Amino acid sequence: MGLSIANNVSSLTAQHNLSRANTSVAKSVERLSSGLKINRGADGPAALVISEKQRAQIAGLNQAIDNSEKAVSVVQTAEGALTEINALLVKVRSLAIDSANAGVNDADALAANQAEIENALETVDRIANNTQFGTKKLLDGSASGPTTGDAADADITAVTATSNTQEGTYAVNVTTAAEKANVTATATGISGTETLARDETLTITGSTGTATVTLAAGLDQDGIIDAVNAKTSETGVVAEVDPNDSTKIRFASEDFGSTESISVTSDTDSAGIKAPEVVGASGGVLGADEALDVNGTTVNVLADDTLSEVVGKINDVKGTTGVEAFLDPDDNSKIRFRSLTTGPTSSISVSSDTAVQDYAAVVTAGTAFTDLTADEVVTINGVDINLTTGDDITAVINKINNEQYTTGVTVADDGSGNLEFTSKESGTAVSLSVVSDGTDSGIGTTALTASGKASTGIGTTALTSTGSYSSGVGTVALTDTGVDIAGTIDGTAATGSGNVLTATTGDATDLAVTIGAGTDSTATVTGSQGDVEVTDHSLVFQIGANQNQTAKISISQVNADHLGKGVDGNQFTDLSQIDVQTASGAQDSLAIIDKAINDITTLRGDLGAFQQNTLESTANNLRATLENTVNAESVIRDTDFASEIAAFTKNQVLVQAGTSVLGNANQIPQLVLSLLR
Fold first, then answer.
1. Which of 61, 361, 515, 578 yields a CA-CA distance of 20 to 30 A from 204?
2. Could you tell me the residue range of the domain that residue 27 belongs to?
3. Nearest 10 degrees: CA dihedral of 130, 132, 136, 140?
């Protein structure tokens, strides 16, 4: 290589290497002084991206751990207050048990116990209203789970939001209304004052079981309904007056849906019962003309009409009257009337313009009476009466009438000098026979005979009869199955069960909406719209380092009027109402108090489980995650001092050497001067 003055390449090489050594020394100084090997993007773009995300994650984990610890404090504050309420309820229970000892306590002692109980319940309310963490109330209901605002449509009667239901307004659209299982007797039922015509047994099967209902003859519609409803707890079936026909009874399941079913059968058929038959006249022919009124229609009969002819005349107008006449099969001397219709319109009314009467048998001798010229024997209805010579008409009449109780016949002067014989009895069964062995008394030897007659026997007082009913069920089972509701919630197809729509919308948002039945359980509606507003007041804790890593707990209201609810068959509805001043009150109060204690202990259990399994476990997991994340971030970002110091020492030596070499390189052009000397 030749010598040159214009360009000193050796110096340039020394400068370049010295610059690189200086840069390396500067980086080492920065890394050693900061403790980080990634101080800017140029130090490692990918490493910087990862490390910065990890730094954010670490900060979030630290805060989440702090949040969890604060949440534990909130839960412990709530449970501490509930512990005191629990102690108060135990005290109240002891007082109730003392009050139940009725054989010992007098009125003053019971009043004192009640006063102490009321004071304890006031303290329960005070704790519920005043317990707070900072300014946040915990036990007054303001930390409760999802609640619903007023529905825009009256069809929506109840809304159940689960713990993960998001706040918002949900549109409800019903396409098919729920139906109860229901059947209506096809035959005319019972209404008004009508009653059951005969004993009847119903077999009713519903979704909860089968029961036999015994109906006694004479029950009215209300009585039948009451008898069926007395078995509702066994069958799940209720009876009611059919809203579309008050003469019918409808049987319906208590609840809605496809799981509901009904079967109703009877041990008798379902026909209405006709009006009972009525018995009219007896006799062979009529004794007088009569005008009969049959269900408002006049039927004229004549004195010499036989009963068969009377029957014929009545039946000629049966299409108008709805009444048929016939001779009694057991006694042809009587007329029976029967209705041609059934049920409440089945009736019979028959009356006559002639009072009820029978006609005696009457016979008159064909010749005028003459005094007897010889002894004579007169035989009347088989009884012999002796007449003597010289008897005049008066004597003969007296002798015959003296035997009237034996013969059943009396005799009298008809006013024309003739003897008129009349039977003492009347009616078609009466007969009269008079025979004399003489020829000159005006009686003669030829027998005088006669028979009695009768009217129709109806009289001016009407014969009446009205039909009655069976229950209208019949021996063929009436069956039906309910229908589940169908529709959507917020545009998502909902599952229908009975009259409850349940849907999962959005991000696992469960919402159940109960639709009212209305007045007609069999109605079908289309497009019934309604909006329901859901608001969640649960306590939400951010216990993770990332979005939506939250935990939620609902703390229900624990005032006395919200505890002890739902005890069946109890005179008190909640804890605030209990009164131990009577024996029954003390016993019922115990049930309410036990339910209230269960409410509180259940809530405490929920809080404890939430604290242990959610908050504390999460905090432990966060600490482990934090440790591993910090370690990962350290590997990427922290300086390895051992290797960095070695590199720093090397680069320092290179700088020193480069500086010395650069000085020597700058002296190379001066060698040219030695050549010029």
1. 515
2. 9-35+639-676
3. -50
Query: Which of 424, 326, 309, 411 is closest to 365 using CA atoms?
Result: 411
Estimate the share of the chain in helix, then strand, then coil, as percent rounded to the nearest 5.
35, 30, 35
- Is residue 172 assigned to a domain? yes
CB environment 466-479: b (16+ within 10 A), e (fewer): bbbbbbbbbeeebe
Q: Do 474 and 500 fall into the same domain?
A: no
Q: Which of 293-307, 429-443, 537-551, 593-607 has the lowest mean pLDDT?
A: 429-443
Is 186 in the same domain as 263?
A: yes
- Average pLDDT of span 198-222: 81
Is the separation of the CB atoms in 372 and 394 below 8 Å? no
Are residues 413 and 397 part of one domain? yes
Task: Say if residues 270 and 470 touch (Cβ distance below 8 Å).
Answer: yes
Judge whether 262 and 181 are in contact, CB under 8 Å: yes
Q: Are 448 and 363 contained in the same domain?
A: yes
Distance of CA 609 to the CA centre of its chain: 36
The single-letter code of the amino acid at 9 is V
Is residue 176 within 8 A of residue 461, CB to CB? The reply is: no
Q: Which has the closest alpha carbon to 486: 473, 474, 503, 469? A: 503
What are 350's two structure tokens?
A: 């028959």
The per-residue pLDDT of the chain, averaged, comes to 76
Report the distance separating Cα 518 and Cα 242, nearest Å.
Answer: 15
Q: What is the pLDDT of residues 376-387, one digit of tens each?
A: 887 887 888 888
**pLDDT for 349-359, tens place per residue?**
666 655 544 44
Tell me: do 107 and 119 sit in the same domain. yes
Domain containing 112 — which CATH number? 1.20.1330.10
Please indicate, yes or no, if residue 560 is contained in any of the structural domains.
no
Distance in angstroms between the alpha carbons of the first and the last residue of the chain? 21
Residue 325: inside a domain: no
**Strand, coil or helix: 31:** helix
Q: 76 and 14, same structural domain?
A: no
H or E stretch at 633 = helix 617-637
Cβ atoms of 225 and 213 within 8 Å: the answer is no
Burial class of residue 13, CB neighbours in 10 A (0-12, 13-18, 19+): middle
362 in the same domain as 427: yes
Residues 300 and 291: beta-carbon distance below 8 Å: yes
What pLDDT score was predicted for residue 276? 47
CB 453 within 8 A of CB 290: no
> What is the tally of structural domains in the chain?
5
pLDDT number for residue 63: 95
Among all chains, which residue has been given the structure tokens 């773009």?
45
Residue 231 is predicted with a pLDDT of 86
pLDDT value at 366 more than 60: no
Say which CATH number the domain at 434 has. 3.30.70
Q: Which residues contact 230 (CB under 8 A, 6 or more apart)?
A: 213
- Residue labelled with tokens 């309604």: 530
Tokens (6 digits) for 598: 């269960």
Residues 6 or more apart in contact with residue 615 via CB below 8 angstroms:
68, 71, 72, 75, 541, 543, 551
